């Protein structure tokens, strides 16, 4: 049995009754199964976090045949016997299901329904989510959703905005057929139809107001409040209607928090539907009908509130230093304005504004940890929230930023580094126990892994990273944790590094340097140590002619920043780059979180030391060359 791709329509056939016709040859049942590499060639058409073995791990993978009823197919298993892929023919003839797995559990499946030549039904499972999308036009994109949660709707809206894909957004809109099926009253129908007409304009306006939004934006949180049931006799509909009157989406854009609104959502069967276009910013809705009375600034008609927001907008447009007294003054002023806004809005609308207060005070602490004003104010805010809403996500948000501020202050004091780190470990552990469902738990777990590493507690670090990867699959922090686990287990195994060269943009693979000792050096232009390290590396290479090479991995946000730095300094070796900085694949592959980071690779391509130091790497190389 052999697997093949029909390049005309992508149809893969398994002819289980006799053999497979491939070109002019008849391959019998005794023919070999598809290879591990062949099964790994197939990729999901839509976003999902799934397991893919490294080149080294592929050696222990195997392909087995499976049968179920009248169907049969192939499964790809990892070295532990866990499923990685399953390609199945439900009718015993044509492959019509392509399944992808994460840690042995199916997270995503593509289905070819009768009459289709390529997958047209798409389902997410387990940690992959709960979505069920359909390509009704069979053009390769999801045009409607049979099942999708409110959270997944907000994630889809983000991806539509980030990629400027209006069609992706329109697939989430309530349709005429669904409006009819709900039996909505006349006024509701008129409202829905009016809102739908303005979707494209709002989409474009939101894109314009969020210029930094790109495909690297990370979904963080959906805030909806409790769902509402609108009784049929209230709305004039045939049935009761379940809706969210508002939906605020929090996203991470280049390290900063931004918000946008997706308006009310209605439940139609197993799917939530949007009825309006997205609007940038944090909204204050009309409680009666869920509308935003002022979609430009989303703060209603209160003149005092409007004035405060205008002042805040002007302040945010000002250039501000990263550190120093002026930076502290800027962030404290911002916190003052936000606190006045908090006083003006209704209690149920204060959450996002209070979060901004905490962010501003935390930024002031980072700008000058020795300035006690911001620390005192942040602690006071925490005490108020602990008294009023001790277990809320908002309280957790403020507590975590106060903890980070205290940590910065103690690090600056420079007293007993190990004691400060141990106290930070204890505080992070306590935070997770107190607020197990807080949005900052993944960050706290990542910090626990990192600090455990600093204290040479590798077992504890591995445990935290593994727990993070298992508990929050798909999160950016989980991907970093998975990379950190790979790094902690790197010694004695072949390293894999592939990227584009800064010099000419051409791809480069570290295997091209096999036969030489390689110093892998992770750097960025903002790290002050890079320039002097380049000088040291150059002398090491010169002293070991043709025996040693440097592969430098740049983690600047853009290649332009890297080129500007290299133009002013004396670089050494081959430099690779991928946009995204510490969030890029080159960084997350091995969980690089602190710079510089140095690996020493032997001539056989295996890692000798995953935590080498520039000051001592020369001695390590001499020992290797003597062997």
Q: What does the model show?
A:
The chain contains 21 helices and 25 strands. Helix 10 runs antiparallel to helix 11, helix 12 packs antiparallel against helix 13 and helix 15 packs parallel to helix 17. Among the domains are: 129 residues, no CATH class; 123 residues, no CATH class; 129 residues, Glutaredoxin, CATH 3.40.30.10. It is of the alpha+beta class and 627 residues long. The strands form 5 sheets. It has an 8-stranded antiparallel sheet. Strands 20-19-23-22-21-24-25 form a 7-stranded mixed sheet, with helices on one face. A 4-stranded antiparallel sheet has the order 11-14-15-18, with helices on one face. The N terminus is likely disordered. A hairpin with a 2-residue loop joins strand 1 and strand 2. The chain starts with 18 loop residues before the first strand and ends with a helix.
Offer a quick outline of the entry:
By secondary structure, this protein is of the alpha+beta class. An eight-stranded antiparallel sheet has the order 3-4-5-6-7-8-9-10. A seven-stranded mixed sheet has the order 20-19-23-22-21-24-25, covered by helices on one side. The longest helix is centred in the middle third of the chain and has 21 residues, at 393-413.
Name the descriptors.
eight-stranded antiparallel sheet, seven-stranded mixed sheet, about 625 residues, globular, Glutaredoxin, disordered N terminus, alpha+beta
Could you outline the blueprint of secondary structure elements for this entry?
Elements: E1 19-22, E2 25-28, H1 36-40, H2 55-58, E3 62-68, E4 71-77, E5 83-89, E6 97-102, E7 105-111, E8 121-124, E9 132-134, E10 144-147, H3 150-162, H4 166-170, H5 176-182, H6 186-197, H7 199-209, E11 218-223, E12 228-230, H8 232-235, E13 241-244, E14 248-253, E15 256-261, E16 265-268, E17 271-274, E18 279-280, H9 303-316, H10 325-344, H11 351-367, H12 372-388, H13 393-413, H14 417-434, H15 441-454, H16 458-471, H17 476-488, E19 498-501, E20 507-509, E21 517-523, H18 530-543, E22 548-554, H19 559-568, E23 574-577, H20 585-588, E24 597-601, E25 607-612, H21 617-626
Parallel strand pairs: 21-22, 22-23
Antiparallel strand pairs: 1-2, 3-4, 4-5, 5-6, 6-7, 7-8, 8-9, 9-10, 11-14, 12-13, 13-16, 14-15, 15-18, 16-17, 19-20, 19-23, 21-24, 24-25
Helix pairs in contact: 9-10, 10-11, 11-12, 11-13, 12-13, 13-14, 14-15, 15-16, 15-17, 16-17
